[in-house]
Amino acid sequence: MPIVIAMVLCACTTTKQLKSPNNTLNPQIERNHFVGLLVVDPTTKDTLYNIHAEKYFTPASTTKIFTLYTALKLLPERIPTIKYISKNDTLFFEGTGDPTQLHPYFKDSTTVQFLSKYDKLAWHTNNYSGDLLGPGWAWEDYQYYYQVERGALPLYGNVARIYHDKALHVSPKLFEPNVINLEHSSNREIEENAFYYTNTRRDTIEIPFRTDSTLTKKLLAGVVNRPITIYGTMPEGEKTTLWGIPSDSVYKRMMHESDNFLADQLLVLSSGILSDTLNGETARKYILENELSDLRQPPRWVDGSGLSRYNLFTPESMVAVLDKLRQELTQERLFNFFVPGGIPEHAPPYIYAKSGSVGNNYSLNGYVLTTSGKILIFSFMNNHYLIKSQDIRKQVQEFLKHLHETY
Q1: By C-alpha distance, which of 351, 127, 373, 103 is closest to 230?
Q2: What is the DSSP secondary-structure string of 152-198?
Q3: If residue 40 lies in a helix (H) or strand (E), which one and from where to where?
Q4: Mean pLDDT across the stretch 348-368?
Q5: Are 339 and 255 in contact (CB under 8 A)?
Q6: Which phi and psi (to 5°) does residue 72 adopt?
Q7: DSSP letter string over 237-292?
Q8: Taking burial as the number of CB atoms within 10 A of a residue's CB, which of 115, 283, 386, 405 is the most buried?
Q9: What are the tens digits of pLDDT across the range 164-218?
Q10: Beta strands 78-87; 90-95: pairing state
Q11: 367 forms bridges with which residues in the sheet?
Q12: Residue-wise pLDDT tens digits, 286-331
């Protein structure tokens, strides 16, 4: 049964009936996979379409919508970079999970500039209790930029950036001796920071590096030009927070680029508002038990990025959070976080959404602006298909175009 025909059969009655999509779309996709769809008019509270909206689906990167909501609820207007206490002639500091320090995109050096003012530095390393990688992440993806290790004090985005332009360029430079000029099936050794990149290559590659306190100490000491001592505890006293770049700039980058590292670090950052111990699980649990306790289908939510197939969300829950965001933010600020789109691509955008894809699964959740001036909220989730993802995406886009034109 074609997907859109099924939509018509399952669509709920509304105060304004939609025209049949069959006159607009001509799908050739057989419905042999799982489809979840919910479209609502948040102003009238009408449900326009409901297909298995209460069922659980693998959300992939649309999980970042929940991460965005969590960060907006918990984090201040600027990113907290470190927390510190000055005792006698020593500055004691600890990481907050800030992902922007020396990051290849943000290039923020707030922490470096601040620490460079002190002669004696003591780093508290024991305030992160989470795992370096998330549950259900694919072990073989350790070498790819989209699966980066998490932590309290990431530097350079926790990736080695390598390219060749007349000469080899490596950032951070500490890894330059670790780059091996050899064709290899992997970008990096699985248990060590040995990277493979031949001199004949001309592309730029970002490879996650293995993190530990010894390496981070070397990287940080190298840029602040000061020795750093590792401490197991912070001294007694009230900590002061050093503030970094605007938080919205990180949220936008996370949503538009679907940046997994930023997403998971935002949960780590958020947990620091709730506890002295950093762990993304703390933030997830708090949001679900407090701000999202009214969800009728509480999600199984295990990471900030959506990398894990253990995540399970319903279209109804996605729409509920999207509606909360719509109510709590101005439209300009809200739409700034979501990727604009529509058909044709050069026309003014009428879709603002977040997509998510992982092998045989594709979802798109967000907002549709209609020609009559309405804003509709939708969640369209497709799991376990065997056809090409581009066919699924085309079907979703055509359906949203129909909503845009007819409601």
Answers
A1: 127
A2: SS--GGGEEEEEESSSEEEESGGGGGGEE-S--SSSB-SSS--EE--
A3: strand 34-41
A4: 96
A5: yes
A6: -65, -35
A7: S--EEEEEEEHHHHHHHHHHTT-HHHHHHHHHHHHHHH-SSB-HHHHHHHHHHTTT
A8: 283
A9: 998 999 999 999 999 999 999 999 999 999 999 999 999 999 999 999 999 999 9
A10: antiparallel
A11: 352, 377
A12: 999 999 999 999 999 999 999 999 999 999 999 999 999 999 999 9
* Cβ contact 219:114 at 8 Å: no
CA–CA dist 319, 53 (Å, integer): 9
Ordered by start, the domain boundaries in the chain are: 3-57+314-406, 78-247
Helix (H, G, I), strand (E, B) or coil at 317: helix
pLDDT in tens, 52-74: 999 999 999 999 999 999 999 99
From residue 212, give the alpha-carbon distance in Å to each of 3, 134, 193, 313.
Answer: 49, 16, 11, 33
In this structure, of 30-34, 360-364, 399-403, the range with the lowest mean pLDDT score is: 30-34
Count CB-CB contacts under 10 A for residue 360. Answer: 15
**If you count them, how many residues does the chain have?**
407
Cα separation, 69 vs 399, whole angstroms: 26
At 153, list the tokens.
Answer: 């004090």
State the residue for tokens 């989730």. Answer: 381
